[in-house]
Fucosyltransferase (Cucurbita moschata), 565 residues
Amino acid sequence: MRHTEDDHKNLWDKDPLSDLKNNQEMKCGFSSIRVMGMFAVLMMFISVVFSVSVVLRDPPSDAVIEGSDVWIPQWNSDPVDSKDGDLHRDIEAVDKLLSGLLSAKHEEGSCLSRYNSASYQRKLAYQPSSYLISKLRSYEDLHKRCGVYTESYNKTLEQLGSNGSSSSSDCKYVVWISFSGLGNRILTLASAFLYALLTNRVLLVDPGTDMADLFCEPFPEVSWFLPQDFPLKHKFSKFNHNSPNCYGKIMKNNRSTDPSGMILPSLVYLHLVHDYDDDDKLFFCDQHQSLLHQSPWLVMKTDNYFVPSLFLIPSFEKELHDLFPNKDTVFHFLGRYLIHPVNSVWGLITRYYQAYLARASERIGIQIRVFDTGTGPFQHILDQVLDCTLKENLLPQTERRTNVVGLASSRKSKAVLITSLTAGYFEKLRDIYWENPTVTGERVSFYQPSHEEHQQTEKSIHNQKALAEMYLLSTTNVVVTSSWSTFGYVAQGLGGLKPWILYKPENRTAPNPPCGRAMSMEPCFHAPPFYDCKAKKGVDTGKLVPHVRHCEDMAWGLKLVDQQD
């Protein structure tokens, strides 16, 4: 600093005693500041210790681990009153390969859902058998060897139009035609794949209009999609039970011929749609399976989950027992193996889950499918849903007294995921729990991702949202589904959940009882055959073996159950 002469004079002219006094005052001031600083540091230390003790005693319930690709949720630490076992998950113990069900050969970034779904869904309901895991790895090798445009594929393709199998190729195929709504397609894909496993065939999938926009490739290093240049592909939409190569039609025209002596075309069409006739249903007879083995190309159209009737074919019995010791795990395992949403759909799923469902102590899914005509919501449907969820203690009772402001609070919260084509049921349920407190003090919140008003099978975005909602339902702890709905079947199977099924109302009246617990998580085969192939007469196929029974929601349908249940 620069000082003027007057400044220097003033400095030198000061009284020394005055300077000493000022120095003492400054020392005293510094001492006070030092004491205050030490006190502030001490308070900060106490605050940190207190905060750490609180966190350790009561960790946050929605802890997350950050990853490079996706957010991985940790199951809530609050106690969950689940009727289906412990749902708490340790992030470090997430089994990305699903106990060996999935191959480790896939590139992860191309399909985020494949290896990250285990962090959102419940763990597998059972351990897959070692034989099933071995069979899947063997199938993947077969698919790679016989896949599209391989030498074996090209050789087998040359046989189209001929009779029987004359090629040296050891590859045979079952082609699945994309048909019907999304729920039906997922169930029939699993059915066709199981049939391919049982008959050592390669499954090729008709991509239709949107299959590639919905599902990742399930097999490593090779596609499951049928190429656009496949001969006859342009005729798939016209295939029916009157087509010349239809198996039922061939049998009808050769009723007087012994099947064991017949020679089939190289391509046989299997019509397994709900309107199939008795000749088409011969597909489920052992003798006819031997005959079908001739043809290298089987083209299948179906809207049925026909797996239960495969369990009634004697030649498949041992293989199926080894693959699935627990009979009610077929779709659960095959669905988790085959069905992986593409990244865009996976984004719909994870964003919604993180925003609305992740922090709840318990997640409840309610799937409402209404078959009545007219404009909803219908009061009898709402009454049925409430009656079911309250009687089964899935939702807490509410306090309807108008003078009640609030009851004792509870740490537990329930997030209720509603899926329906209309928003009316969601709005009414939400308002009931908004306007009235619960008697338990639990917090209940309701969410509905979309309400498309009516089914739009032909629209890709509609199907993407539908797939996302099926998947979100599968992440819940408990689920309520509607009778006859394949949408609900897919959700319960992927989630490994035994649902409460809302019985189908009659005459717009809520049924009593409103719902019942399913025997198993398996879907229902809606249009099974009732025919004894050996006796060549009608028979109740729901009473032949203990593990194939009639469905709860459709008396004539068939479903797989575990014998112990």
Observations:
- The CA atoms of residues 40 and 46 lie 10 Å apart.
- The first helix runs from residue 5 to 12.
